[in-house]
Amino acid sequence: MEENAFYVALSLLVNLDASLYQIVVLSLQVSLLAVLIAAFLGFPLGAAVALWQFPGRGGVVVALNALMGLPPVVAGLGVYLLLSRAGPLGELGLLFTPSAMVIAQVILVLPILAALSRQKVEELLGEYREQFVSLGMSRARMMPTLLWDARFALLTVLLAGFGRASAEVGAVMMVGGNIDGVTRVMTTAIVLETSKGALPLALGLGIVLLTLVMVINATAYILSETAKRRMG
Amino acid sequence: MTSLNVPVNNPIELSAPPSLQFESVEFNPFGHRLFGPCSFKLDGPGPTLVMGPNGAGKSLMLRLAHGLLTPTEGAVSWSGASAPRQAMVFQTPILLRRSALANLRHALAVNNVPRKLRTELALEALARFGLSSCADTPARVLSGGEKQRLALARAWSLSPAVLFLDEPTSALDPAAIKAVELAVQEFHKQGTRVVMTTHDLHQARRLAGDVLFLSEGKVQEHTPADMFFRAPVSRQAQAYLNGELVA
């Protein structure tokens, strides 16, 4: 019975295991902060690409779409090189800290948020354009209106970004280092426990991670569906 | 009507509506001529009803006049130094995904109306169009007639000197049509230049001061309404009024 993964997961949760609690909180902190920063940068970026015509716009769209599939280890390697002692930002001493993990996840999530919000905003702009021009709105003035009116679609985009951030292991492993009590998050803990052969614990952690992601998604889904139904 | 002592809603009722002139206007994107060449002047009291068969260029004419499209050749000009304040009501109202009140507040905001005046002006416009009870209703769940009235209320709140309407009643029931027509007459009484397209001959008879008849992207005639319906000059208009198929 003690070897059952579900039992392990349950007992970890019920006993409010301190180290598990710390891992879960850090995982959430890193991924939520990364998604927040990426949204702050990515939504206006996506909207700008949707609104403005400029030379090389097609290239930007393709690049954003392609970077949605950026392998986490490549992002991790890039941030590692940037933050390592000999790197350009080495003096900041950020390598193997949660900050480095946030930076790496921002790089992973930003293209998803920018590319998908570009698509959503462009769709909405097609619908609104004549009214906007009729009202004499500049492109810069259209941006906040479009981002607000696309809010339900963008919430789903945000979730896609959060999913990517919370599920990836390569980048946080490389730049965080999976240091116990400092940079250990759920995914890196699962990798570690698996390699140690502690499969029930690894599975238990996996179940906790899955449950967390499900709860967050379900909440957001219910919120947005209710709001959507109300707003028509 | 109640009048509010704020600059934006202070009507232009005493001055004549601005006149609109098309000088050899053509619209031919990709070398394919869709409109013109056309020259005419709208300087009568109006309302001007733009009529003509499908594909005659009525909607294009409104969009060229309003500035949604830029003429390929020729020029659209207004009396006065600069283009007057304008609004347009579309066949399918384009409403934001917000409450009716927020839709009006947004339009006022982009027209630089001070924040503290917006709600008051918006509520006044909603009341005028019988939408007070819908203020907090999301605009996109309103009925078709309510949506069109909201679009009219939005236009009203901006106090336009010129109002364009592109078949605003084509999808509405008789009661809603009546509400729109009353609103159009109200705009006209306030001194707004009203330019509207329609396919409904009865509606045109009820509203028109003058009729601009288009066919094949060109103006076939521009005559006072009573003359147009009594004795149209152009062969195309005669055929159109007789219910014949015209291109």
UniProtKB/TrEMBL annotation, chain A:
Nucleotide-binding found in the keyword field: no
Membrane topology note: Multi-pass membrane protein
Primary site of residence: membrane
CDD domains (alphabetical): TM_PBP2 (cd06261)
Keywords: Membrane, Transmembrane, Transmembrane helix
Occurrences of domain ABC transmembrane type-1 (ranges): 24-220
GO cellular component, one term: plasma membrane
Cellular localization per UniProt: Cell membrane
Ranges that cross the membrane: 20-52, 59-83, 95-116, 146-165, 201-223
Any one of the GO BP annotations: transmembrane transport
Keyword Chaperone assigned: no
Matches recorded under PROSITE patterns: ABC_TM1
Name of the protein in its database record: Binding-protein-dependent transport systems inner membrane component
Originating species: Marinobacter manganoxydans MnI7-9
Higher taxonomy: Bacteria, Pseudomonadati, Pseudomonadota, Gammaproteobacteria, Pseudomonadales
UniProtKB/TrEMBL annotation, chain B:
GO cellular component, as recorded: plasma membrane
Keywords: ATP-binding, Cell inner membrane, Cell membrane, Membrane, Nucleotide-binding, Transport
Entry's localization field: Cell inner membrane
Domain ABC transporter: start-end pairs: 20-241
Leader peptide range in chain numbering: none
Membrane-related topology note: Peripheral membrane protein
MF annotations from Gene Ontology: ATP binding; ATP hydrolysis activity
Domain of life the protein comes from: Bacteria
Family from the record: Belongs to the ABC transporter superfamily.
Protein name as it appears in the record: ABC-type polar amino acid transport system, ATPase component
Organism for this UniProt entry: Marinobacter manganoxydans MnI7-9
